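thought: fold this chain, then report.
action: predict
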Amino acid sequence: MGRLDSVATLLPDPHLFLYAYVRKEALLSSQIEGTQSSLSDLLLFELEEAPGVPMDDVVDVSNYVAALEHGLDRLRGGFPVSNRLIREVHAKLLSRGRGSDKLPGEFRRSQSWIGGTRPGNARFVPPPPHAVDECMRDLERFIHDEHTPLPALVKAALAHVQFETIHPFLDGNGRVGRLLITLLLCDAGVLTQPLLYLSLYFKQHRAEYYRLLDQVREDGDWEAWLDFFLQGVETTASAAVTTALRLVELFRTDASRIQESGRAAGSALRVHTAMRQRPLVTLGEVCRRTGLSFPAATNGMNILLGLGIARELTGKRRNRVFAYDQYVRILSEGTEPL
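observation:
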C-alpha cells in the first residue's frame, strides 16, 4: 500500500491517472452486476459531441463515477464515513437509469433476497426491513470504534462483508459495498489518493468471492475471507503500481517521438498533453483544453495520427473522435465484459 501511495509522486500529474483509474474501477464494479459496457463506451458517453453509445449500461457506470467522486469530496470536506454518507453515495449511484425507482438514498422497507424466487428458496436472505436501521447503526459504530485497534485494511475487509450481509438497499448494494472499501481507506489516511480498487480482483475471482461471503455468514469463517481480501489488496496494489509506471513510460516515449517531428512539434505536444488528460477527444475538446486554433489542433492531431499514437474512431469527416490508442489499451486490460 505504501508503494501504491507513493506512486502518485512519480506521476507528472497524478490526476491524469486518477481520472482514468476511477473510470476503470466504475466499469469493473458495474460489470460484476452484469453491465456490458466497455471503457471506450464510457469515455465516449462523457464526450457530449459523440452520441450513439448504448445508454443503460453506460449510465450505470457514469453514475458510479459520480457516486465515488461525491463520497471522496465529502471526506475531503471533513465529513465522516457514516450512514448519511452511505445513503448520499447510494442516491448518486441510482440517480438515473436502471434502479432509479428503487428508493435512491433510502434504506429498504421491504424484504429482499438473493437467488431463488422467494425467501424460502433463496441462496441468501438478509435481515428483515425492521432490523436494517439497527444493523447499520451497529456497522457505523464499528467503523468509528477506536477501542478495538484493528488495522485499517482489516477494518475495511470486515465492514465490507457486514455491509453486504445487511444488504440495506433494494438495489446497488454490491457497488456501494465496494465503494465503501475505498472511502474507508482514504478516510483512515492509508491512501492519500483513491488508487486501490478491488473490483478487478473480485471480478476475476467472482465465485470464490461469493463463496467466502457465504462462509462468513454460515460458519463465521472470517479468517478465510481476510486471507482472500488481503491477497487481493497485495495483487491489486502491485498491478496499479505497474500500470502507473507503464503509463509514465508511454507518455515519455511518445513525447520524445513527437519532438522529432519538426516545426509542428509544439502544437502536436499540446495535443498529446490534452490526450493524456482525456484519452478520447474531439478536435473541439482539444481546442478547449489547449487554447490552440482549430487548424493548429488539426495539424497537431495529424502528426499523432501519422506516428500511430492516435487513431480516428468514427470514419467521418465531421465530429471525428480520436483515441490515444495505447493508453486506452493499457487501461482496458481486464475490463472485457463477463
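thought: worth noting. The domain at 2-120+128-240 is CATH 1.10.3290.10 (Fic-like fold).
final: C-alpha cells above.
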